[in-house]
């Protein structure tokens, strides 16, 4: 609980500092782009921290645990493709955006192609795909918070109160309602929306830099602890090699000659 409160306080402190940077500057350029002067290292950290989402820490390990090391090839492709795409088009996109004075990608496409329809379609597609991406992040954040705060007294009391409110609701309630999940989901969502709306893009980048450092140190420590527990990488590989895909979702086609 203490670590969670400290982390949240640091995040909102960064949002406050970012909001102070807007004084005397163009609101649109500073709020949405950080005045384009955040630097290479900040951009690198924010890209890495954004890419290493809930799927990286919850989805990918689960898939490797289930299907074995072969899933690492799929994960490798997931990492390489955005980097290649960025290398091919990011510089050109930046040039076009600066020349046209665009803030967002849909605005840049609308001005570049001279078609409001293209900009509207790009906006709809962006919102559609980002909805599902953010849905996974919010779920992962709620699950992590549930694990982190599960034995805290105040959290247990709040969880029970949430369950008592949700159980009578026909569309979400019932005897199996998980008050801890909904409580953590609400706290996580409000916190993310609040510091993002308060500090703008600069706050997002600064918190990503902090989170990137936390994830980097955490992964190094976790890797050492995990390998120690399983007896080294060789033993971990042997154990993973014994695993077979689950029967659910596997299509079997058997052909017999008669």
Automatic annotation (TrEMBL):
Location(s) in or outside the cell: Membrane
Gene3D superfamilies assigned: Sodium/glucose cotransporter (1.20.1730.10)
Entry annotated with the keyword DNA damage: no
One GO cellular component term: plasma membrane
Membrane-related topology note: Multi-pass membrane protein
Ranges annotated as spanning the membrane: 39-60, 67-89, 117-136, 180-201, 213-234
One GO MF term: pantothenate transmembrane transporter activity
Entries under PROSITE patterns matching the protein: NA_SOLUT_SYMP_3 (PS50283)
Keywords in alphabetical order: Membrane, Transmembrane, Transmembrane helix, Transport
InterPro entries associated with the record: Na/Glc_symporter_sf (IPR038377), Na/solute_symporter (IPR001734), Sodium:Solute_Symporter (IPR050277)
Keyword Transport: yes
A Pfam family per the record: SSF
Entry similarity comment: Belongs to the sodium:solute symporter (SSF) (TC 2.A.21) family.
Name assigned to this protein: Uncharacterized protein
Organism per entry: marine metagenome
